[in-house]
Design brief:
The chain has 426 residues and is of the alpha/beta class. The chain is built from 12 helices and 17 strands. It has helices at residues 50-58, 137-151, 163-166, 173-183, 188-201, 217-231, 247-261, 283-289, 307-310, 318-331, 338-344, 409-414, and strands spanning 4-17, 22-35, 39-43, 65-75, 86-87, 107-108, 111-113, 122-123, 132-133, 156-159, 235-239, 275-280, 292-297, 300-306, 375-378, 385-389, 418-420. The protein has a 9-stranded mixed sheet, sandwiched between helices. Strands 2-1-4-7 form a 4-stranded antiparallel sheet. A hairpin with a 4-residue loop joins strand 1 (4-17) and strand 2 (22-35). Helix 4 crosses helix 5 (188-201) and helix 4 (173-183) runs parallel beside helix 6 (217-231).
Length: 426
């Protein structure tokens, strides 16, 4: 039986733009859930909020003001015993009377809201008014950082895009990987052998005794992948782990990530509770790894559902369809002209988002109401998920027991799908 390892409900995060003297919303009401033994893919172009969402989970958003709303539920403490035993949930109603996309009705032992107490530190005003951040949020942030520092690494690991800045500059790659293995529970001799194996797998053995500043960007990317995999965290977030690498190395990293999520990574302590969040704009990587896919645009989820369905012929949101068509154009480069790229447009800056549907300036199927009314994320019956006009309506994800090798057509047809689009549901 799989269980919810991570649940994110109504997550919103801002940064403060000192030049324009205003708060900029980087993540807007994002909800999802990740089961143990499963892979969640977060897909979208650069600037869509994928990495910011990962930083929110890791507790790495700026303090001014950072996360201002939402819940991040993490289930910990299961060890080798497998699935947590369900316990009776608290009698309190859902926060604000809302029912979240990632919220479940069953509570689990060891389940904790990492953002507990944040509500009391922020006053949320109606749209168009300023946020009121109370002074006592500083104390909350200090407690929060202490809690997250204990979780980073062994419980939640992040393979970051900024590999050079993530590596310790004053130690060799070999020593950093060995230290990660020791942190995961191996002794000195075991850690040395495990590090040699992993460095060889990632073709890093010739650079094992080099320092990060002497290495190329792609080599550093492989090095940080080795360091984080050696920690063997419960939840691994891989942010563009294959970007900029040669195809053979991409295949090797995908293979290692598969071994990780299945609890079969060599030299690592077997677990029954690991999960992977893969962040990428590469459809091929998503198709190879992800069980469930959420598509993000302009800081919000625009479509979600089973990966095999969304990347097949059943995508409903025009943005998902466009990204799939671009991948097909890359195969037929003769069709990919400069004018084609101009016609496809670019992601809007978070400082100047268009009214209504954020994708409508790039959408060939847009209607008049798309320019003024913003859709909400709405569940489609027997279809993947798409967004429709905002309301308090929310939906439950169904946690299924399908194998990682795929799901049957019968189950695929009833898998919950959500979409944020007027056109897709007309």
């Amino acid at each position: 039986m799989n269980y919810p390892l991570l649940e994110v409900n109504h997550l919103s995060a801002y940064i403060h733009d000192t030049r324009m003297r205003k708060f900029v919303r980087m993540v807007d009401d994002v909800s999802f859930a990740v089961e143990s033994g499963k892979v969640l893919g977060i897909f979208g172009e650069s600037g869509c909020g994928k990495t910011r969402t990962a930083y929110c989970i890791m507790g790495l958003m700026p303090d001014s003001p950072g996360i201002i709303d939402g819940e991040i539920w993490l289930t910990t403490g299961g060890g080798e015993s497998g699935c947590r035993k369900p316990v009776k949930p608290p009698p309190t109603p859902p926060r604000g009377g809302k029912e979240g996309v990632g919220e479940l009705t069953t509570a689990f032992k060891g389940r904790e809201n990492l953002l507990q107490g944040l509500d009391a530190c922020v006053n949320r005003k109606p749209k168009g008014e300023k946020l009121v951040i109370k002074k006592k949020i500083t104390k909350w942030q200090q407690k929060y950082e202490k809690k997250m520092s204990a979780l980073r690494g062994k419980t939640i690991g992040l393979i970051s895009q900024g590999a050079k800045s993530a590596l310790w500059p004053f130690d060799t790659i070999r020593n950093q990987v060995e230290e990660s293995y020791r942190t995961s529970g191996l002794d000195e001799h075991q850690a040395s052998g495990a590090a040699a194996w992993l460095l060889d797998e990632l073709q890093l053995i010739d650079w094992a005794d080099a320092y990060p500043h002497t290495l190329s960007g792609g080599t550093c990317q492989r090095a940080i992948t080795a360091v984080v995999l050696a920690l063997n965290p419960v939840l691994l977030i891989a942010d563009e782990p294959t970007t900029g690498l040669d195809p053979p190395l991409q295949v090797k990293i995908i293979e290692l990530l598969k071994q990780f999520v299945n609890g079969k990574l060599q030299f690592s302590q077997p677990r029954n509770e690991q999960a992977l969040i893969i962040i990428s704009h590469d459809i091929k990587v998503m198709a190879e790894l992800a069980d469930t896919l959420i598509v993000m645009y302009a800081g919000r989820v625009v479509e979600s559902g089973d990966c095999s369905i969304l990347l097949g012929n059943s995508a409903r949101h025009p943005y998902t369809q466009m990204m799939k068509s671009i991948a097909q154009l890359n195969v037929h480069k003769s069709e990919l002209t400069p004018q084609t790229l101009v016609d496809l447009g670019i992601v809007p800056t978070m400082l100047n988002l268009p009214p209504g549907c954020k994708f409508h300036p790039r959408c060939a199927k847009r209607m008049d109401k798309c320019k003024t009314d913003e859709p909400i994320l709405e569940e489609l019956t027997a279809n993947p998920t798409v967004s429709q006009p905002r309301s308090d309506a929310r939906s439950h994800p169904e946690h299924r027991e399908e194998s990682r090798n795929g799901i049957s057509l019968e189950k695929a047809l009833v898998a919950p799908r959500k979409v944020r689009c007027y056109v897709s549901t007309e």
